[in-house]
Amino acid sequence: MRPALYVCFYEVSSYHIHVSFAVHKFSCMFTEEARPSYYGDMGTNPVTGKVEPVYPKWKRLVRFYFVSVPSVIFCLISESSVFSSLFSVFASIYCSTQPPSGTLARWLRESYDESQLFS
User: Fold this and answer.
1) pLDDT tens digits in sequence order for the chain, 119 residues long
2) How far, CA to CA in Å, does 95 sit from each of 60, 87, 91, 114, 119?
3) CA distances (Å), 40 to each of 10, 18, 32, 59, 61, in order?
4) FRET partner for 83 with CA separation of 20 to 30 A, picked from 14, 30, 55, 113?
């Protein structure tokens, strides 16, 4: 009984939202042709059977492998190098008996005492 009441309430509230936002005025939006200004190759959509503009798969793969993948690899390498350099500085400050001589280590020693760095 509870699921039936839920379905009835959902249908009524859905209709009220449909009317209040005037969604019925935008029904022509779904019947328009896809990208009318596209001037590329036309192909048949296997789902609808309509002739639509198609973007070649090899262009999509070129963009993926020569733009997206290298940028992700570059970001990973730069992030890991920054992390490893900061880790080595903090480890050398914390574990070493002799203070490190780098600029970042000197600034850290001057700004913070050792109890604040690793607390």
Assistant:
1) 777 888 888 888 887 777 777 666 665 555 566 666 777 788 888 888 888 888 888 988 999 999 999 999 999 999 999 999 888 888 777 776 555 566 777 777 777 766 665 55
2) 50, 12, 6, 11, 14
3) 44, 37, 18, 12, 17
4) 113
Report CA-CA distances (Å) from 114 to 49, 59, 90, 94, 106: 71, 55, 10, 7, 12
Q: Name the DSSP class of 33.
A: P
Residue 97 identity (one-letter amino acid) = T
pTM above 0.90, yes or no: no
Structural contact between residues 89 and 102, judged by C-beta atoms closer than 8 angstroms? yes
Specify the amino acid at residue 83.
F
94-105 exposure pattern, b = at least 16 Cβ within 10 A, e = fewer? eeeeeebeeeeb
Listed in sequence order, the DSSP H helices in the chain are: 2-20, 57-63, 69-95, 103-111, 114-117
* DSSP H or E stretch at residue 52: strand 51-53
